[in-house]
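wait is this the right file?? whatever heres the structure
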């Protein structure tokens, strides 16, 4: 452990005060297996082993434990930018956030930041709120609170975009974020990493958030990691200043291990995993479930492990499924019933209508709900896929606005085995810049038809004025 004089954070936050207790270990061990499927499951193999190695190296800098075996570090198969930690030595990062990073020090910084939240007992300070939301899907009490609480329409959009299960990692306060940043930076220094990596990864996150908002045509939708870790843009300056104060007198910045990092994450799945369904523009295709649908123009989709959310200015929706049971009428009634908690008035559709969509038996019901912001229409449109399986859309719109989703309701269809076989994942490909390569030429190889240059620049932490140098390694996203 480095002497206290090497970093302000090391002086301000003693590392021996909050060791992993027996109770924390028991709590973490209980939550871990339930948590994994909410975030796509744990990845295995060389990439996951590498992340685990880096995570344990940075975690032991926290003083929670000197034994690497006391920490469980998991690479999650999730297409959202997220990272978090829970008491008991459990640390998590998604493959999507890992892909955004550009060196090992940035990976260590993000994981150190999350361990810092645990070391500072931030999760304990919000434990009561977390216990009410822990591991809930979008349906159930999350939605019921939205529908019947304040500012229902806008809040539903936020909750759906967070995919419900993301609420496990509730929003931290700005002071807690800054404290976790400082702790993470001190851990970087102790492990021999360049502490400035915290600032560069926060900058990449801020740029990615801005790009996602631009691509969605919206400035008020907050991506997942940003929603639970607020305001990365303003924190960049703080991290830069803190990293500067954490430098040793030797003038050595510390290691980044850029080439090692890029080599170890080469080939990582980027974006949606076909096993969880693929979003392409406003289309969703699930090769394993053999289905596809198309959202209305102007709406964007967010894929989760339990559901797909569909978000736009005129309405919000969610697509998910379950056991058909005794039939579509009962299935629809069950979905409506799941929106209310004990003691609340039951939401009941005025009537249920039958339909047929692309050869599928279907039915739908609409209920008007009085929210504090005014009345809203909640609709459930369900499909019988045979074999006791049903799928449905749950939508919320202003009264009379459910028709905004008619095209989506009618687009639901089975796909053929041939169509399913054509669905392929995007992957990271680390390439070496050759003479004559430019940002534009390399971006042209990306597996996107929109904003390819912007995506390339953000993915590689490059500015628009960047000039590539032969021999330099960069990331592409390819099929």
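ok assuming it is, sequence goes like this
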């Amino acid at each position: 452990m480095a002497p206290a004089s090497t970093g302000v954070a090391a002086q301000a936050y003693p590392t021996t005060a909050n060791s992993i207790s027996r109770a924390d270990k028991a709590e973490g061990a209980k939550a871990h297996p339930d948590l994994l499927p909410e975030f796509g499951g744990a990845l295995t193999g060389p990439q996951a082993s590498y992340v685990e190695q880096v995570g344990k190296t940075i975690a032991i800098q926290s003083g929670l434990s000197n034994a690497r075996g006391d920490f469980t570090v998991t690479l999650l198969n999730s297409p959202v930018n997220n990272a978090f930690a829970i008491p008991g030595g459990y640390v998590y990062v998604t493959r999507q956030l890992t892909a955004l990073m550009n060196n090992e020090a940035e990976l260590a910084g993000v994981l150190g930041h999350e361990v810092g939240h645990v070391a500072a007992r931030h999760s304990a300070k919000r434990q009561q709120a977390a216990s009410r939301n822990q591991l809930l899907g979008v349906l159930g009490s999350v939605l019921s609170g939205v529908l019947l609480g304040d500012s229902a329409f806008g809040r539903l959009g936020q909750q759906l975009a967070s995919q419900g299960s993301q609420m496990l990692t509730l929003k931290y306060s700005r002071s807690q974020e800054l404290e976790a940043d400082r702790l993470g930076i001190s851990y970087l220094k102790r492990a021999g990493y360049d502490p400035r990596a915290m600032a560069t990864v926060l900058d990449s996150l801020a740029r990615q958030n801005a790009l996602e908002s631009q691509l969605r045509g919206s400035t008020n939708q907050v991506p997942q990691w940003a929603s639970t870790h607020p305001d990365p843009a303003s924190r960049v300056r703080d991290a830069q200043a803190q990293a500067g104060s954490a430098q040793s007198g030797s003038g050595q910045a510390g290691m980044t291990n850029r080439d090692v990092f890029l080599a170890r994450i080469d080939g990582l799945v980027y974006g949606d995993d076909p096993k969880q369904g693929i979003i392409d523009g406003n289309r969703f295709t699930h090769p394993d479930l053999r289905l596809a649908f198309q959202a209305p123009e102007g709406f964007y989709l967010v894929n989760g492990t339990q559901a797909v959310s569909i978000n736009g200015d005129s309405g919000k929706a969610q697509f998910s499924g379950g056991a058909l049971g005794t039939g579509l009428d009962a299935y629809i009634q069950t979905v409506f019933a799941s929106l209310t908690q004990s003691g609340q008035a039951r939401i009941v559709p005025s009537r249920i209508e039958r339909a047929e969509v692309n050869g599928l038996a279907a039915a739908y019901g609409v209920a008007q709900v009085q929210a504090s912001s005014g009345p809203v229409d909640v609709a459930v449109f369900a499909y019988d896929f045979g074999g006791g399986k049903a799928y449905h859309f749950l939508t919320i719109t202003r009264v009379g606005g459910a028709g905004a989703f008619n095209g989506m309701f009618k687009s639901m269809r089975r796909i053929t085995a041939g169509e399913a076989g054509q669905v392929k994942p995007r992957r990271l490909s680390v390439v070496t810049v050759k003479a004559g390569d430019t940002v534009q030429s390399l971006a042209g190889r990306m597996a996107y038809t929109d904003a390819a240059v912007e995506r390339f620049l953000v993915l590689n932490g490059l500015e628009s004025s960047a000039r590539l140098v032969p021999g330099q390694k960069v990331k592409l996203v390819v099929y």
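Residues 310 and 330 are 24 Å apart (CA to CA). so i think its the right one actually
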